[in-house]
Design brief:
Elements: E1 28-36, E2 39-50, E3 56-64, E4 67-75, E5 81-88, E6 91-99, E7 102-107, E8 113-115, E9 121-122, H1 131-137, E10 146-152, E11 157-173, E12 176-187, E13 192-197, E14 204-209, E15 214-218, H2 222-229, E16 243-252, E17 255-264, E18 271-277, H3 293-302, E19 307-311, H4 328-343, E20 348-358, H5 360-371, E21 377-381, H6 388-401, H7 416-430, H8 443-450, H9 453-457, E22 464-469, H10 478-489, E23 495-500, H11 521-534
Parallel strand pairs: 9-10, 18-19, 18-20, 20-21, 21-22, 22-23
Antiparallel strand pairs: 1-2, 1-15, 2-3, 3-4, 4-5, 5-6, 6-7, 7-8, 10-11, 11-12, 12-13, 13-14, 14-15, 16-17, 17-19
Helix pairs in contact: 3-11, 4-5, 6-7, 7-8
Amino acid sequence: MRRLLYSLAVCIAALAAGGASSVFAQESAGGYTTRVGGQTFGTETYRVTQNADGSRRAEADASFGGTKLKAVTIVNADGRPLSFELEVNGAKALTQQFTPAGVRVTAEGQPGKTVEARPEVLLENGLWHHFIFLLARYDARRGGAQTFAAFLPTQALAFKVTLTPVGRETFDVKGQKVTTEHFRAQTELGLAFEVWTDEARATPLIFAVPTQGLQAVRQGSEDLAAVVFARDAPPAPSANGPYTSEEVTFRNGEQTLAGTLTIPKGTQGPHPAAVLITGSGSQDRDGTGVANIYRRIAERLSANGVAVLRADDRGVGKSTPLAKGTSYRDLVNDTRAAFEYLLTRGEIDKGRVALIGHSEGAETALILAAEDTRVAAVALLAGTSEPVDRVVVEQSLYQAAMQGPVDPMDETKWPAVARQIKEMFEKAKTTPRPAAGADDQLAWFREHAAHDPVADARKVRVPAFVANGERDALVLPHHALALAGEMAAAGNRRVTLRVFRDLTHLFTPASGGERAGEVSEEFLRALQEWASTALAKK
């Protein structure tokens, strides 16, 4: 799911001592813009000042999904949190004091309590400036992966976050060389995200949560972010390889989309083919930020007889953006244009073209397979069986319940992100659609909330591959069972259901090991074998 916040449980922090060498600027200020799938979801401005005793006061004003937040964080000279205060829409909502005995929590409308936790870092939703404290606590002399005790104030939740340096990376930004430090963070809650900082490791410039399609960019770093998110094109295929690779472009109205068409070499055409449809966030054609899942799928299928078209999303890589906001139907029509383009190619068998969609892309594949009888087969990878507004709440509650008791009937106790996303969808449902031709900033939310994937699943009569990872915490495996079951119940006798043990939303291993970040070989083999059978010449 691409234009969807999923669970914006993003880490932010105020850190403690313990051998690290804290280095803070005397004062800093700035702001961040948070985007979900290319759509602006929220903004933050902040200022950090130093007090006479060496402690620091961070004040932030943020707006997410129509909710206005004001947060004040105070940390001592070495970064350990002393207090946190939060106002929501102008009303005081939360006060926390950090003491040797634990965290004293006072929340409006609730009795006070003390949480047994001694956090080194505070991790609160959307307050990106807190990473300044996290980075200051990272001990560069020691290097390597370093783990910190973390605390999510709005949930009074203690957990751990591990910060691992990926390395120094230099980008060509409009003719200027810009050097960054790239870190990867993994929370104990299961969330992984990427952070690029300035060369001094003092200021976070870019954040990405690939599985959620979330990006946050510091004001002034927009050009750098565009380069970072569009980088890492795959190496050119070998001339002796099993397929050829061709740069192609096609159009959806005013939108030009660029991609790669891989065509098998070992078999005589016309070839069966597939369109790959990306998932959460503005993805490039390879899925650079999501384990290169799209490149891995394309290469595996084309090496085994199936041509594949994969494209950069609008506004990414070599695809051009539009000036106005993007609706979900715009994205569906981008995929329709890719399908139509394949039908113009002489190397492609027009009766054997499939759609393969991941996450939100699975929903797109389902819509088009239900609407267009020319679609020969469909693969739904980690797709949802329910409207997105329900799924994002389910996801947030699921991840919170993994850490402790949650009352699903008491929305005031839900994770803040679940409440914020619910408010965004409710706003989309109750706000009138703008006049024809006007830019509808809520179109993506409005259209997703109105779509019922099960209704489309019942219309699909072509071979279908419905798959999930057992450890997918974003789209839970029950969605695959529901989609496959509805297809079969409606009369489709060519449905294949797979739940892959220990795999994540990206079909990478959830457990450790050398290949933990790589797309599963078992998954690739199963998808390739299904595609070869489903698209075999009759």
